[in-house]
Amino acid sequence: MRQPITGYHVDVERQWVAELRCGHAQHVRHEPPWQDRPWTITEEGRASHLGSELECPHCDGFAMIPAAMHDAGMVPQSEHSRDVVPMAEASRPAKISALFSSVERGSPAVVPPRLEISAVFGNVELDLRTSHFDPQGTEIIITATFGNVEICLPVGTIVENHGSGILASVRCRVGEPMDASAPRAHVRITGRAILSSIEITDGLDDGADD
What we know:
The protein has four helices and 15 strands. By secondary structure, the protein is mainly beta. The protein has two domains: 55 residues, CATH 2.40.50; 129 residues, no CATH class. The strands form three sheets. Strands 5, 7, 9, 11, 12 and 14 form a six-stranded parallel β-sheet that branches. It has a five-stranded parallel β-sheet with strand order 6-8-10-15-13, with no helix packed on it. The chain is globular, with a radius of gyration of 18 Å.
């Protein structure tokens, strides 16, 4: 489904991302000969493409959901999140996307206050056990369509799991810290899995790698 470009931002890997009217986003890399978009290099070039249409794979994925589900209010989390947290009141979230691909990250990092993860016919695996979290809390917004998302959090992380699924698995298995006096990260999980799997664990979980 084609959607017009309404703006741009830079992701955590310093790559340009086009913001689409539907609320989703699409990378607009210039990597010749595979992707030829010289207009992304300059501010003038990007501005000249505002309003141009790009294919939105996220909309294509959600178009597979029966219309009855949409009428019943079972809409993607990205549509709800714009009502709950207006963009004017929140900083732009970092985004990780996997479209017919796999993304795995495990090095220490600073996790932003809002992190959006999208897996459309893709796989995202994040090992955040040695990462630093915002002391005010972190929201991780997950949208998975025919995909898989696995996140490993630090031991003892306080997790609010508000994720939901349609013909999907959404599991959260996080234990208590060995040192009750140690600082604990606070993470809120939101989003929706459609014919997908979302699994949140910590370093003590039997399924996590050492």
